[in-house]
Design goal:
about 240 residues; alpha/beta; two-stranded parallel ribbon
Length: about 240
């Protein structure tokens, strides 16, 4: 009787140990990340395909990725409260309590409808003209919006002339549609409007006096680099991709 009881205890202990190991292994195969909308829509999918291909080539079980696609401000909040260990942002405002790595740069472009007056303009739009023109823009907390505001603030004689938005919208796709309607110009990542430019749904407007570029960054909360190996690999992949 005692022997049977001991066997049952040992079997239960083995099941418990196997369950703990299963949970640990599953957690190692899962990486939750948050990314700003431009990165989530136009860059991250390629990075994830590269990560999966490399893991499969190395005989590793591919990491499952849980993605939250939100604006840069929300990404920072998710990393800060521990909801995700890794975030990707477009904003120049990186909190001092988070660790960060610059991945590369992105080009912003002024875009208008083909029917807008700027589409027929021969002279470049000056930084002051751009700042004084109410734009169609993303909501507060958007990395694209914050990056443009930061660029304006760095220019002498422009910071105090920034116009309030004509329209504020919550996604890049809706901003593109609103710009195409001809109501007002907007500033978006070149990644987001490349197809619209090729199909002439939008027209890019040349500018002068302002360099429309911004850095893309990875952020995490602890240590000189993220603790999970897949996160480290994903950052390395993003850097290489943006370097080309």
């Amino acid at each position: 009787m005692i022997t049977g009881w001991a066997a049952d205890v040992l079997a239960a202990a083995e099941r418990l140990e196997a369950g703990i190991e299963s949970i640990r292994t599953q957690s190692l195969r899962q990486l939750d990340v948050a990314a700003s909308l431009t990165i989530a829509e136009y860059l991250l999918p390629r990075w994830l395909v590269t990560l999966r291909s490399r893991q499969e080539a190395a005989g590793q079980v591919p990491t499952r990725i849980g993605l939250s696609a939100v604006n840069s401000e929300a990404v920072i909040a998710l990393v800060r409260d521990g909801t995700v260990p890794l975030g990707f942002i477009e904003t120049p405002d990186i909190p001092s309590d988070l660790r960060a790595a610059t991945l590369g740069s992105d080009t912003l472009m002024v875009a208008v409808s083909p029917t807008h007056a700027w589409a027929r303009r021969r002279k470049p739009i000056t930084a002051r003209e751009l700042a004084e023109t109410p734009p169609i823009t993303r909501e507060e907390g958007s990395g694209t919006r914050k990056a443009l505001e930061y660029l304006f603030e760095e220019l002498d004689g422009v910071a105090g002339t920034i116009a309030s938005p004509r329209v504020e919208l919550s996604s890049t796709a809706v901003v593109r549609t609103a710009i195409a309607s001809g109501v007002a110009p907007g500033v978006l990542s070149s990644l987001a409007i490349s197809d619209d430019l090729a199909l002439r749904r939008l027209v890019a407007v040349e500018t002068t006096g302002i360099q429309l570029t911004r850095n893309l960054s990875a952020v995490w909360s602890d240590g000189p680099r993220p603790s999970q190996t897949p996160a480290q690999d994903l950052i390395a992949i993003a850097r290489r991709a943006l370097a080309h």
